[in-house]
Amino acid sequence: MSLVGKKAPLFKAPAVVNGNQIVEDFSLEQYIGKKEVIFFFYPKDFTFVCPTEIIAFQSKLEEFEKRDVAVVGISTDTEETHLAWLTTPRTKGGIEGVTYPLVADTTKTIATNYGVLAGDWEYNDEDLLTFQGAAIAFRGTFLIDKKGVVRHETINDLPLGRNIDEMIRLIDSLHHVEAHGEVCPANWQKGEDAMLATREGIANYLSNN
Q: Any idea where the Thioredoxin domain is (predicted)?
């Protein structure tokens, strides 16, 4: 079930912030009323596609910050594993230099609440409760506005990496909609024409583009 248009599930969980400090009660509540958030799930630390995404977010962090948007990552690994990965040089498979928060969802409740856990508990033929699938998160990405409402979500299967530039485009679209009361058509980029959500508006847009 999609979370778009609904309040983002809140939580308190351990996280590593600034690339080197563990905090025990990290929460998205600190951003409500202040910043939008790109909240993204990734499967596992010390893997292959995941570091490319995490480092790609870091390389674009200035662009997010210019738009007053916080970036927060999360996986089902422990905070200690996050810290070890964050302090391992990139030449040795680490993600040293990443500064935005990485949350530890060791209970898997956050991934469950966001609908991205790649498996579930089921009873087998012997009435034993077993976990079916992978007990890690899919690559879920959520754009949460300043009111704490989810405005966009995508969920990729485990081997499919994200396009970070698309996250920035969506933020620009949201900001344009909020500032001008227009809607953004397919493939819209910042600085391009948008349109009014009326028959006349779409007719004018299509005739000029």
A: 2-176
184 is catalytic: no
Half-sphere exposure in the Cβ direction for 90 (13 Å, CA): 10
133 bridge partner residues: 119
User: Averaged over 119-125, what is the pLDDT?
Assistant: 90
Q: How confident is the model at residue 209 (pLDDT cuts 50, 70, 90)?
A: confident
Question: Which CATH number describes the domain made up of 13-162?
Answer: 3.40.30.10
Domain boundaries along the sequence of the chain: 13-162, 163-209
Report yes or no on whether pTM surpasses 0.85: yes
What pLDDT is recorded for position 104?
98
pLDDT digits (tens, 9 = 90+) for 130-155: 989 999 999 999 999 999 999 999 99
Which one of the listed residues 8, 13, 15, 50 is annotated catalytic? Answer: 50
Task: Please give, one letter per residue, the 3-state secondary structure of the chain.
Answer: CCCCCCECCCCCEEEEECCCEEEEEECHHHHCCCCEEEEEECCCCCCCHHHHHHHHHHHCHHHHHHCCEEEEEEECCCHHHHHHHHCCCHHHCCCCCCCCCEEECCCCHHHHHCCCEEEEEEECCCCCEEEEEEEEECEEEEEECCCCEEEEEEEECCCCCCCHHHHHHHHHHHHHHHHHCCECCCCCCCCCCCECCCHHHHHHHHHHC
User: Residue 201: how many CB atoms within 10 A of its CB?
Assistant: 14
